[in-house]
Design goal:
- This protein has helices spanning 24-37, 56-69, 84-93, 112-124, 136-139, 145-154, 168-177, 192-197, 207-210, 212-223, 227-243, 251-259, 276-289, and strands at 8-12, 17-18, 21-22, 41-43, 74-78, 99-103, 130-134, 158-163, 183-186, 202-205.
- The chain has 292 residues and is of the alpha/beta class.
- The chain has one domain: Aldolase class I (TIM Barrel, Alpha-Beta Barrel).
- β6, α4 and β7 form a beta-alpha-beta unit.
- α1 (24-37) runs parallel beside α2 (56-69) and α11 runs antiparallel to α13.
- The radius of gyration is 18 Å and the shape is globular.
Amino acid sequence: MQQRLFQGCGTAMFTPFKGDGVDIETFAANVERQVKAGMDFLVPLGTTGETPTLSDAEKRLVLETARAHAGGRKIIVGVGTNSVPGTLANIRLLPEADAFLVVAPYYNKPPQRGLYEYFRTIAAETDKPVILYNVPSRTGCNIEAETTLRLAHDVPNIVGVKEASGKIDQILAILKDRPADFSVLSGNDDDTLKLMKEGADGVISVASNVAPAEMVQFVHAAFAKDWATAEALDARLSDLFRNLFIEPNPIPGKAAMARLGLMENTLRLPLVPATQATEDIMSQILEALWKK
């Protein structure tokens, strides 16, 4: 299999809060839990980490803590905003990252030529690898396959894409015509199996916060083309995949982590804790996932 810079299972890390601050001891413990489970790389400060609500000092603390506890795993940090100056400010704030995850600019709704120029401009300002992040449900715009492929071929340090569009035909087009060293990572847990069967390189996962060992086993089985094991684990995890998004991420996931005793169920406005109905669903899923 072609060796690319980022492959396997990576966790889009939750940011735990306590009172008015980041619960950094709990974050460190959860990083160590990921390492123990065999996670391939870590992705703090993304959408799942409620990053728009963090101060610059908190972003630095999260990255420094991840680096200190990651056991040498590569760390991709989310830095994207809806402006060039804002995104470059985050890149300069977080130079210890191994790579930068740059989301399509939200709210602006740029055309494809604007997306191309935006990502090209960002990548030119760093010598670190850049990974595109396409999540139209959050940003209001889709990075089309043609744009992703132009960037992949034209800009040497744009090395991959996290594809959370759910547009399978679009992702297959990227897989078909990408450069040999360009990583395609699923951004949706429930798309991972079908995309890895078509040659995708893994996933940046929400579910692996809750079930890291199971997600590592699932993705590694898919890499080994052990489809029986991968399909069985996909089926076992499917309720978790689906219900982590019954309210906006990370609301259900933090409810699950609290049920497991792994962090307080605290979010920052404008996000709020899960409804009782979601709490009950997550409790049922966790019980079923690990029942004897």
